[in-house]
Amino acid sequence: MIVPSQGPEIVVMKFGGTSVAGPDQIKHAARRIVAAREKGKRVVAVLSARGKTTDELVAQAHEISDRPVAREMDMLLSTGERISCALCAMAIHDMGHEAISLTGSQAGIVTDSVHTKARIIDVRADRIRQALDQDRIVLVAGFQGVSTDSRDVTTLGRGGSDTTAVALAAALQAGVCEIYTDVAGVFTADPRLVPEARKLETVSFEEMLEMSASGAGVLQLRSVEYARNHGVQIHCRSSIEDGPGTLVISEEETMEQPFVTAVTHSNAEARVTLRGVRDEPGVAGRIFTALAGANVNVDVIIQNEPVGDDQLADLSFTVDRADLATARDVIEGLDGVSLEMRTDEAIGKVSIVGAGMRSHPGVAAKVFEVLGEERINIEMISTSPIKISCVIAADRVPDAVKSLHRAFELGPDAVRPEDPTGAEHRPTVAG
Ligand code: ADP
Ligand code: ASP
Ligand code: MG
Fold first, then answer.
1. Which of 20, 74, 81 most suits a substitution to test ligand 2, by most atoms within 8 Å of the C-beta?
2. CA distance 161 to 179
3. Could you say which of 55, 117, 220, 230 would form a disulfide bridge with 159 (CB–CB 3.0 to 4.6 Å)?
C-alpha cells in the first residue's frame, strides 16, 4: 500500500523530556514509534531534550555569565533535542527500520529572530516529505528553528517541543498530533500536587488556552494556539501506559460544560511594583509598550486609585521570572515614570478555569471564600470570562490548589455538571 507523505495517514508523535530521559525510555519511545509505523502510519516523531538537560544547559550558561547572550543561549539549548533524536534514530535502526534525525532547521521550522522565545512563521516540510516517501521514520529535534532573517538557530521558549509537533502536524495535515508525556493526559489539577486529580477525556481549546497560560505546563500555550488556528487534533497521553489520554477539541464538540474544569498554578512569575506613578494619560502606555518592545509578557496588572493631592498612583504587574531582569532594565530606562520600583519573586498564582463559569455567578465569591478559610491572602486578582486568577504567597500555592480542587469537587467522585457554588441554576440563554 502506498501511503501519501501528507494527510491523515501521517501521525506526529512528540515525546517529552522524561519520556526520553534514559536509554530504556529512548528504546521504549522507539518501540512505540516503530509500532505505529508497523500499523501502516507514516511517522514523524518530535523529541525533547533528555530529562533535565535543558535546565542543566541553562545552569551551565549562568555559571559562565549573569546575562548570557540570547543568540548563544539558543546555540547551547538547541543541542539537547539533537542528542535525543540521534540516539532514538539509532534505536530505531536496531529495530530494523530506516530513520533519519533532523534539526529544527533541517526540518524546515522557520521562525522570527526573537532568541529564546521565537515564533514559528513558516514550516517548509519538503525534506520531511521526501524522507517519508523514502519510507523513513523522521525524527525532528523539538523546541528549535532557524530565523531566515539572521540565519541563526532559535528556540521556541520552554516547553516549545509541543509547538514544533503541532506545527509539523499542521504542515503535513497529519491525522493527529500525539503528545506523549509523563502523565496520562490533562488533569483537573497538576497530579504531582493533587494526587486525586482526575484525567479529563476532553478539554476545549478555550479552556486549554487558559490552563496553559495560567501554568499547566503539560501543553505549551503556543502549541494550543497553533492547534486551534490550524485545526490540529491534539491527543495528550501517557508515554508509559496505553489507553486514551485527553483530546483537545472545539467548545461546540464538548459534551458537558462544568462550572469549573480545572485548578492551575504557577510559581514562575515575579511581581514588579512601581510606586508614585504619575496618574495621567499615556503613562501606562509608555511602560507597557516599552516592556512589549523588549518581549516581556505581562500578566496580572493592578493600579491603585491615586491618593493625596500629588495624583500619584501605584502600579503592580507580574512577569515571567525569567524576564524580571529585562523588565527592571526597561523600567529603569524610562525617565521619570515612577518614584520607586520594587520587585517580589516570592509570589505564586492559583487559577480556576471553566467554560461554564461564563453563565454562572458566584464562582469568584467561592474562590475568595475558600482561600480566606485557608487563611491565604489574595494579593492580586485577574479574571477572564472563563478564568479567575489570584496572586498569593508562593509558599501557599500547594494549599490553595488542594483546597480549591476539593471545594469545587473536581476529584474522582465529581458529579457533574452540578453547580458547586450552590447558586441557583440559571439558564445560559434567556427563556
Ligand atoms: P514533557 O517533558 O513531557 O513535555 P512537562 O513537564 O512539560 O512534560 O509536562 C508534564 C507535566 O505537566 C506533568 O508531569 C505535570 O506535573 C504537569 N502538569 C501541570 N498541570 C497539569 C495538568 N492540569 N494536567 C496534567 N499535567 C499537568
Ligand atoms: N527541552 C525544552 C524544555 O525543557 C523544550 C521542551 O521540552 O519542550 O523546555
Ligand atoms: Mg513539556
1. 81
2. 10
3. 220
Query: Within a 10 A sphere around the Cβ of 181, how many other Cβ atoms?
Result: 24
Measured CA to CA, the distance from residue 294 to residue 329 in angstroms comes to 10
Segments in 333-429 forming alpha helices (H): 363-373, 397-407
**Cα atoms in the Cβ-side hemisphere of radius 13 Å centred on 366:** 21
Ligand 2 binding pocket includes 214 (Cβ within 6 Å): no
Ligand 2 binding pocket includes 158 (Cβ within 6 Å): yes
- The closest residue, in CA terms, to atom 9 on ligand 2 is 158
pLDDT band for position 159 (cuts 50, 70, 90): very high
Report the alpha-carbon angle 324-114-204, nearest 5.
80
The 10 Å CB-count burial string (b at 16+, else e) for 152-166 is bbbbbbbbbbbbbbb
What percentage of the chain exceeds 70 in pLDDT? 94
Ordered DSSP codes for 11-45: EEEEE-GGGGSSHHHHHHHHHHHHHHHHTT-EEEE
Does this model's pTM top 0.85? yes
307 DSSP 8-state letter: B
SS3 75: helix
Domains of the chain: 10-182 (3.40.1160.10), 272-343 (3.30.70.260)
Contact 208, 254 (CB under 8 A): no
CA–CA gap between residue 217 and residue 190 (Å, rounded):
9
Let me know if 99 is exposed, middle or buried by CB neighbors in 10 A (0-12, 13-18, 19+): buried
